[in-house]
Design a protein that fits this description.
The structure holds three protein chains of three kinds. By secondary structure, chain B is an alpha+beta fold. Chain B is built from four helices and five strands. In chain C, about 50% of the residues are buried. Classes of the chains: A mainly alpha, B alpha+beta, C alpha+beta.
């Protein structure tokens, strides 16, 4: 669907900016509620993530000694900005992306990686032991899931013959769902999404029982609120990307809501079903199983295209 | 290599009611033996004070109004009591009991936490004495 | 961070999400590998042994019960057994059977609680939530019997406070059936789920000789094949009439400790069913004097964490001379410190939880006599004065 709004409005209100932040909060609520229901609990009320954010913004921001003060204050802003920027290129809420050009798939993925990098940098900035270990784990995990995840997003791009997300969206909407045509790619992309979002079982970088809060340990108040908002927005954008590529594209708001929520349901189930993997187990898993499967899928796609062009 | 062995439980829980009881909207009835607030029946009390000797946390005092006529007033500190029921066992005449309906005892300040048990006229007399300390007082409490 | 080497110190505690109670652990790490460990305890010292000297025997029963929340009944039982030994009184058989039932129910409760906590440390929150939901069943049973979910206050000097009626026995049977079925499910999960087994398997492996050398007791040692259990070695209450089977495992690692504790839960369920079917008739209390004759007594019981030892000394009055408590968690710390070396940092919380630490039980005063020093007696005033001066 096409939406013709002034770019400033798109950037600030809808479907980027405030709307993106609000949908981030709503998806965080849905995630927490689903996990709670899987665990036979009640779960938070609808207004909980908003209440959390408001409370965090109202708290004092404590700057620990030994940090680079400018970096400490600016990193959360960069994180949120990167996440919001990535929202400009995906079909947010079923409308055409606000800005679309050739190769914007790479830009969107890069923006999401900037988010993870800033969290790692934020952890390395302080001298707290827990933050340093958390930063190390964040960056280690970044290096391990990035390759397979990118490869799986590459699969639909090759099938569509373009690197432009809006064109991939159109292609996916017109052909058979890529979830069926590239099942291995779909599975790896789903697991890759969990690695990117640092959801359990890949939440070693912020393992609460081992290193308090990982890279986020020293953050409080506004900085922490911005980081959390960034992660929520990343959740929405990640779900949108996987739904666009593998679940037959997003043509209108209704499809957006249904497909992303269905993905969220599966994601919540996977989150509750497994124990946390240690960081070395995570790296081992990704570089063996993940990369191998992604490469296998890629070869299958290339062979498929070769045979269809030959015959 | 089985993974996700809890999957069936997890999926089933999605369709069941949560196991949480939404207190205070839902209140389960307390079991019959619940050890709640102490209650004292002054009829049979002989003033032997075994209960007070045995209390681990000095939660009860006995104020003697008239020893010969066995008129006593018991002062009970809810905030000191540990609800162990030792006093109930120590009393040979069955004057003490722990309620199983009065157990929601949380309160915002300490005002109502010292309760006096006894006959109306005895408590009234005690209150008068506390209000006017100069007036003649009978035997002092423990 | 030490400047000379690449290693630095990770403090776990006194405040840390991994610990439920305060203690200070310091791990020297090199990357993610632990190269050294040390511990400082004493954050929960409350002066209970000193307080026991100022209260009468009856009041102390409730003080000792509150040393720990999860093993409260065992503490009270050990105390009453010691005092009854001094007074030469034996509780009637029905009281002893009821004490045993409460003790085994408490053991089930403690092991299910531990299962949830250990799963949480390993990141498996679903197992944590489910095992704690099912633990509510055993807590409800204990509340129906005794009137409280924690600190049951079942014991009296000379017997127990309440009886188990046939209706109550029927409810206990029903609850035990549910617990049995759920625990079989958890045993299956612990044994089969690969994502979960990867965490405790091979961590903290201890041979039987090493366990004996380090002085480990309880399920921690039984997982290494050391078959010590006070309920079998020195039976108390009615354990000679309703015996239990000692559960051991050969692997000696963290996974073995999981299996031992869940198997112990099954044993407890079986014993409770047996006692309920053959509950001896009789009265509930025996007459106990107010002044306990002078003497010393030692009582040992099997807490969910291992052997609990009580030393009770009386000087003939109605207040004890000395009550000394040695709790099982104290013996298991050395295993953590020596097994931590070479493991990854991520395994530390699970290793700590593996011994089922109960810090509140731990912090009693220990006097260490070095060979050359004279032992001297310090009066209460002198100790207080020393403490004030030390921090000035």
């Amino acid at each position: 669907m096409n939406l013709s709004l002034h770019p400033i409005l798109v950037l600030l209100i809808f479907p980027g900016g405030l709307f993106l932040l609000a949908s981030g909060l709503i998806y965080q609520w849905a995630d927490r509620k689903l996990i709670a229901r899987f665990q036979n609990r009640v779960g938070p009320r609808f207004i909980q993530p908003l209440a959390d954010t408001v409370k965090l913004l109202a708290k004092e921001e404590i700057i620990p000694t030994g940090v680079h003060k400018g970096l400490f204050l600016v990193l959360p802003v960069i994180a949120l900005a990167a996440a919001l920027t990535a929202g400009l290129y995906v079909p947010m809420f079923g409308f055409q992306p606000a800005s679309s050009f050739r190769g914007d798939l790479i830009v969107a993925l890069y923006a999401l990686s900037v988010l993870t990098l800033t969290m790692g940098l934020a952890g390395a900035n302080t001298i707290s032991r827990f933050s340093l270990i958390g930063a190390t784990r964040t960056l280690t995990q970044l290096f391990s899931y990035e390759a397979p995840f990118l490869l799986t997003l590459l699969g639909p791009a090759i099938a569509a013959g373009t690197w432009q997300i809006s064109k991939i969206n159109d292609y996916a909407g017109q052909n058979i769902w890529l979830m069926i045509a590239q099942p291995i790619g779909f599975a790896v992309s789903l697991i890759g999404l969990m690695g990117k979002l640092e959801l359990p079982p890949f939440d070693a970088p912020e393992a609460e029982t081992e290193i308090v809060a990982g890279a986020m340990t020293e953050y409080s108040g506004r900085g922490y609120a911005l980081f959390r908002l960034g992660k929520d927005v990343e959740l929405v954008i990640g779900l949108t990307l996987v739904a666009t590529f593998y679940l037959g594209g997003l043509a209108n708001p209704l499809q957006f809501v249904i497909k992303t929520l269905a993905l969220l349901l599966v994601l919540a189930l996977l989150q509750t079903a497994f124990a946390r993997l240690r960081i070395d187990q995570t790296v081992g898993f990704w570089w063996r199983a993940g990369a191998l499967l992604a490469v296998v899928q890629l070869i299958a796609i290339l062979l498929g295209r070769y045979f269809t062009t030959v015959f | 290599m089985p993974i996700g062995t809890m999957m069936s439980d997890l999926v089933r829980s999605l369709f069941k009611k949560p196991a949480t009881e939404l207190y205070p909207y839902v209140k389960k009835p307390a079991p019959a033996r619940l050890r709640g607030k102490l209650t004292w029946n002054p009829e049979k009390c002989t003033g032997c004070q075994l209960c007070i000797k045995d209390c681990p946390s000095n939660a009860i005092d006995l104020v003697t109004i008239d020893k010969a006529a066995k008129q006593f007033v018991m002062r009970y500190h809810i905030d000191h009591c540990i609800y162990c029921a030792q006093c109930v066992v120590s009393c040979r005449f069955g004057c003490l009991a722990l309620s199983n309906v009065d157990w929601e005892l949380a309160i915002g300040n300490k005002e109502p936490l010292g309760i006096f048990y006894g006959k109306e006229e005895n408590i009234a007399r005690l209150m008068e004495q506390i209000a006017n300390p100069g007036v003649e007082q009978p035997a002092t409490p423990e | 961070m030490s400047a000379d080497t690449n290693k630095f110190v990770i403090p776990i505690g006194p405040q840390h999400p991994a610990l439920k109670e305060p203690a200070n652990f310091e791990f020297w790490v090199d990357g993610e590998t632990v190269t050294g460990a040390s511990v400082r305890l004493g954050y929960v010292h409350r002066g209970i042994e000193k307080g026991a000297e100022a209260r009468t025997w009856v009041q102390n029963l409730y003080l000792m019960e509150r040393i720990c929340g999860i093993c409260s009944h065992v503490h009270a039982t050990a105390y009453t057994l010691g005092v009854e030994k001094l007074a030469g009184v034996e509780a009637p058989p029905r009281a002893q059977a009821i004490r045993q039932i409460m003790g085994e129910l408490e053991r089930i409760h403690s092991h299910m609680l531990w299962l949830g906590v250990a799963a949480h440390e390993g990141g498996f929150d679903s197992l944590f939530m489910y095992s704690w939901r099912d633990r509510e069943t055993v807590m409800d049973l204990l509340e129906k019997i005794s009137g409280n979910k924690v600190h049951y206050s079942a014991n009296l000097l000379g017997g127990v406070k309440f009886d188990i009626t046939p209706e109550l026995a029927a409810e206990i049977h029903k609850g035990l059936e549910f617990l049995d079925e759920r625990n079989r499910f958890y045993l299956k999960v612990v044994n089969q789920d690969e994502t979960f087994i990867g965490r405790p398997r091979g961590i903290g492996t201890m041979t039987a000789e090493r366990a004996n050398f380090l002085g480990a007791i309880g399920p921690t040692a039984r997982a290494s094949g050391v078959a010590h259990d006070i309920r079998v070695d020195a039976p108390y209450l009615k354990y000679s009439e309703f015996p239990i089977k000692v559960e051991t495992h050969t692997s000696g690692d963290l996974h073995g400790r999981f299996i031992v504790r869940i198997n112990e839960t099954f044993e407890s369920i079986r014993v409770i069913r047996e006692i309920l079917d053959h509950l001896p008739p009789g009265e509930l209390t025996a007459r106990m004097p107010r002044r306990i004759p002078a003497g010393e007594a030692i009582s040992r019981v099997e807490a969910p964490r291992g052997e609990l030892l009580y030393f009770v000394a009386s000087n003939g009055s109605d207040k004890p001379e000395r009550v000394k408590v040695r709790t099982p968690s104290l013996c298991n710390w050395s295993t953590v410190l020596s097994l931590a070396i070479g493991l990854k940092l991520a395994d530390m919380p699970m290793l700590l939880t593996g011994i089922d630490p109960c810090f509140s039980c731990n912090d009693r005063s220990v006097s260490v006599k070095r060979g050359t020093q004279d032992s001297s007696m310090w009066s209460w005033e002198k100790l207080r004065h020393y403490g004030i001066e030390y921090y000035r």
